[in-house]
Write a structure and sequence with these properties.
Layout lengths: L4 E7 L20 E6 L2 E5 L7 H8 L4 E5 L23 E5 L8 H8 L15 E5 L4 E4 L2 E7 L7 E7 L2 E6 L10 H7 L4 E5 L4 H7 L7 H11 L4 E4 L7 H9 L6 E3 L5 E3 L1
Parallel strand pairs: 3-4, 4-5, 5-6, 10-11, 11-12, 12-13
Antiparallel strand pairs: 1-2, 1-14, 2-3, 7-8, 8-9, 9-10
Helix pairs in contact: 3-5
């Protein structure tokens, strides 16, 4: 398939993975998005959607990858310790994760990959893996990556990937302070695809304010204001069933906006 970007939504559930008949359509795996961008292999977050078999199928066995992590809350890094390319000596990867609480990228992942939580640390990797702070931005070959600090407990990073006149903004774990956050609207303005947190209903938000996630109504307003060509809502509440998500989706009034389905692909 032609396109500057080929995107596959691998994990869209927030907070914790779920399974069962009630989540077959929208999926139960936590945050992970595969992106083939101008020939580069890019992975956004490493939740339980990070599958080695799917990686080989989607990227054609690429031996070089860039993993962009928004933050190290466990639902976003659960899939990292067992990701097969990390143990392949023919592979090479770059991992980007902002320093938080005095811990750099490697130290944050080591906190997960250490006894008694995990039997081996990053020293067991056979691949050549570099760890970096994303800072204000960087490049992956011809792909420009820009960042914006999210509003989320403990901090999180919002990413914008651009190449060949197309752009993708990944804004999960984001609690905007209003329906028109100026910094985010400038950052995401005119993007080709916006993947945007919309975990809560207005009713949910009465008890979850401050948890670090947006509401459906607020995210819909932001999508309109930033002029995204297409918006897909991500980070679905783990308690939300397929039937409930379909009902909420039916109430949306923004063209090109829907709730993401696990396994969904988008070409830009």
């Amino acid at each position: 398939m032609d396109g500057i970007f080929r995107i596959k939504l691998m994990g869209l559930r927030g907070t914790m993975p779920v399974h069962g008949e009630d989540c077959r359509l929208f999926g139960g795996a936590t945050s992970c998005v595969f992106v083939q961008a101008a020939g580069e292999t890019v992975i956004l977050d490493a939740g339980t959607g990070l599958s080695g078999n799917a990686y080989r199928e989607f990227f054609g066995g690429s031996k070089r990858f860039s993993l962009l992590l928004t933050h190290s809350h466990v639902d976003h890094i659960m899939g990292f310790p067992a990701f097969p390319p990390l143990f392949d000596p023919a592979c090479e990867g770059e991992v980007y994760l902002e320093t938080r609480a005095g811990l750099d990228a490697r130290a944050q992942l080591e906190a997960l990959m250490s006894p008694p939580l995990w039997p081996v640390g990053t020293g067991a990797f056979k691949a050549r893996v570099g760890f970096h702070d994303p800072g204000e931005g960087f490049s992956i070959g011809p792909v420009r990556v820009d960042t914006l600090e999210s509003r989320h407990p403990g901090g999180s990073t919002i990413y914008r990937l651009g190449a060949g006149g197309k752009s993708l903004v990944y804004a999960t774990d984001y609690e905007p302070e209003s329906d028109a956050p100026e910094d985010f609207i400038r950052f995401a303005e005119g993007c080709s695809l916006l993947l945007l947190d919309a975990q809560y209903t207005d009713e949910d938000y009465r008890r979850t304010k401050g948890f670090g996630h947006s509401t459906i109504a607020r995210s819909a307003a932001i999508a309109r204001r930033c002029g995204a060509k297409q918006t897909i809502f991500v980070h679905h509440d783990p308690g939300r069933t397929d039937a409930q998500l379909l009902e909420l989706e039916a109430g949306l009034d923004v063209p090109g906006l829907h709730f993401g389905r696990e396994g969904e692909e988008v070409i830009l």
